């Protein structure tokens, strides 16, 4: 053997490892950063030991703690997602900590005896979407957990495809975000088409809304509902911006804009300028497309909500669903002041909106959807108790397909190929393998919600009440969730007919 070959021998294993990393499809980080990417997993493996002495606790990191991310990662991979040796949270001294109150006895059948439907663990919504107003396309969503709005453009084609395939496998709906429908959205999941202030995908050459185009898009399917985006938790009242680096030829074609240039969405719509004209537009879209139509908004000044409820109570117009987004910041990048200080956090914002509908006696007329870190079981349970009929998940489903909370979504340098249009980075994400993980996560979240529901003595998360949770006041006392938010008896629950129907569905024969 020549001296040159001898010198090369120590490097052959590294070269072999690099070649394997480049062709494997399970880990986007390794495909994008062969060999050196293994350091991330090595550090992750010894992370608890390192943090115990020199870094931070498992429940200290934000916006998602290491424990929360670990639960999502383990759930998506069907690994052990249990935690041993007690809680990391300081439950005795944390002000505002929610505690779920289990029941000793219950008439609810054990989970092993409950009919979970054709998809194994499908948990349908407690209300019909569009049913109250008799929309031709009214339906009962098959999942109480669905995918929130994240557009093609903000996310890569591979990420959109993986999430759509995963949602389809889990029987969940996939919200398109305001960027329109691409071919990557058409892998089996039912879609909620979001219409933003720039009317992407349903606008003319001058950027104005065009009804004919919207009807064509809806008819092309599988669009089950339309969501009008008024604002979102990441940047309420600000509008949006897709940097020019992310505006590829394909994205430009779908949105009807120019490639390579910053794509700005204004903060307000041009098709309506008041609550009254908004409802006129809602009824127009519903009449022309036949599908349920709702709105999405973060919660700030309540004047809009007061007027909306008054008009819905006194006229024959109304939205079919309301998606309330928490002001904690979400998948969209924004100035720090907007993500941290503009609009109310989810629990307070949602409670104030729900109260308006409940006091008017029309809460049963609307399907309520919550979003804003509700992809974690404890947060979701609080949302259902407050009156949510469904929850939407965004950052959590991103984590299920590999997001490591690098917080580089706005730079086009996402290391896992999720929030980027960089071809090299995006190629590391294999949609087929990641779709399985998205589906596993969605199913696991529903399973845990069912377990908690049964612990509370009810058959469905939508039947959990504000009396089933207490909010701790440090180590001194606790107050029921109902008292904290000023709810009256039976607020937050479906009416007796819907409650009986969903109980019958969940406790049907195996």
Q: Which stretches of 5+ consecutive residues score pLDDT under 50?
A: 112-120
Protein structure class:
alpha/beta
How many domain regions?
2
Q: What about the largest sheet?
A: 8 strands, parallel
CATH class of the largest domain: Alpha Beta
Query: What share of the residues lie within helices?
Result: 25-40%
Number of strands: 13
N/C terminus separation: 69 Å
| CATH architect. name of the largest domain | Alpha-Beta Barrel
Q: Averaged pLDDT, please?
A: 88
How much strand?
5-15%
Major sheet: order of its strands? 2-11-10-9-8-5-4-3
By CATH, the topology of the largest domain is TIM Barrel
Radius of gyration equals: 23 Å
| Coarse shape | globular
CATH superfamily of the largest domain: Aldolase class I
Quaternary organisation of the protein chains:
single chain
Q: Tally the helices: what do you get?
A: 19
Fold topology:
Layout: H1 3-8, H2 12-23, H3 28-32, H4 38-45, H5 47-53, H6 66-76, E1 98-100, E2 145-147, H7 157-170, E3 174-175, E4 191-195, H8 211-220, E5 223-229, E6 240-242, H9 249-255, E7 263-265, H10 275-289, E8 293-298, H11 303-314, E9 321-325, H12 336-341, H13 346-360, E10 367-371, H14 377-386, E11 390-393, H15 395-400, H16 423-427, H17 431-455, E12 469-473, E13 477-480, H18 481-485, H19 496-506
Parallel strand pairs: 2-11, 3-4, 4-5, 5-8, 8-9, 9-10, 10-11
Antiparallel strand pairs: 1-12, 6-7, 12-13
GO molecular function: glutamate synthase activity
Organism: Gordonia crocea
Family: Belongs to the glutamate synthase family.
């Amino acid at each position: 053997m020549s001296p040159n070959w001898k010198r090369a021998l120590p490097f052959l294993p590294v070269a072999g490892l690099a070649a394997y990393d480049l062709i494997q499809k399970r880990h986007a980080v390794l495909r994008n950063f062969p060999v050196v990417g293994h350091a991330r997993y090595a550090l992750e493996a010894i992370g608890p030991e390192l943090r115990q002495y020199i870094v931070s606790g498992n429940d200290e990191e934000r916006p998602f703690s290491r424990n929360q991310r670990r639960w999502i990662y383990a759930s998506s991979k069907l690994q052990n997602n249990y935690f041993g040796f007690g809680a990391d949270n300081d439950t005795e001294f944390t002000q505002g900590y929610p505690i779920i109150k289990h029941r000793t006895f219950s008439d609810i059948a054990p989970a092993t005896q409950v009919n979970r439907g054709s998809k194994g663990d499908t948990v349908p919504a407690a209300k019909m979407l569009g049913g109250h107003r008799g929309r031709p396309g009214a339906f009962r969503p098959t999942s109480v957990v669905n995918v929130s709005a994240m557009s093609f453009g903000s996310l890569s084609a591979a990420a959109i495809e993986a999430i759509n395939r995963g949602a389809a496998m889990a029987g969940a709906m996939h919200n398109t975000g305001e960027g329109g429908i691409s071919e990557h959205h058409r892998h089996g999941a039912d879609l909620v088409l979001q219409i933003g202030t720039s009317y992407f995908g349903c606008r003319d050459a001058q950027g104005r809304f065009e009804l004919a185009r919207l009807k064509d898009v809806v008819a092309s399917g599988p669009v089950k509902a339309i969501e009008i985006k008024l604002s979102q938790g990441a940047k309420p009242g600000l509008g949006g911006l897709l940097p020019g680096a992310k505006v590829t030829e394909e994205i430009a074609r779908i949105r009807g804009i120019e490639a390579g240039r910053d794509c700005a969405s204004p903060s307000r719509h041009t098709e309506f300028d008041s609550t009254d004209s908004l409802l006129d537009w809602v009824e127009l879209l519903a009449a022309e497309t036949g599908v349920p139509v709702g709105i999405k908004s973060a919660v700030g000044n309540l004047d809009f909500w007061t007027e909306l409820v008054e008009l819905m109570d006194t006229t024959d117009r109304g939205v079919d669903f309301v998606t309330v987004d928490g002001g904690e910041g979400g998948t969209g990048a924004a100035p720090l002041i907007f993500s941290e200080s503009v609009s109310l956090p989810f629990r307070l914002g949602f409670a104030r909106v729900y109260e308006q509908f409940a006091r008017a006696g029309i809460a049963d007329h609307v399907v309520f959807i919550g979003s804003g870190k509700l992809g974690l079981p404890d947060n979701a349970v609080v949302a259902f108790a407050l009156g949510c009929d469904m929850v939407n998940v965004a950052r959590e489903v991103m984590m299920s397909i590999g997001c490591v909370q690098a917080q580089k979504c706005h730079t086009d340098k996402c290391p896992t190929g999720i929030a980027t249009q960089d071809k090299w980075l995006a190629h590391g994400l294999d949609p087929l393998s990641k779709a399985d993980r998205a589906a596993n996560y969605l199913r696991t979240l529903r399973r845990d919600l069912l377990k908690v529901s049964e612990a509370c003595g009810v058959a469905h998360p939508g039947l959990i009440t504000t009396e089933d949770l207490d909010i701790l006041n440090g180590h001194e006392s606790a107050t029921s969730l109902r008292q904290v938010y000023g709810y009256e008896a039976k607020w937050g629950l479906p009416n007796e007919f819907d409650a009986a129907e969903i109980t019958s569905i969940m406790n049907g024969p195996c």
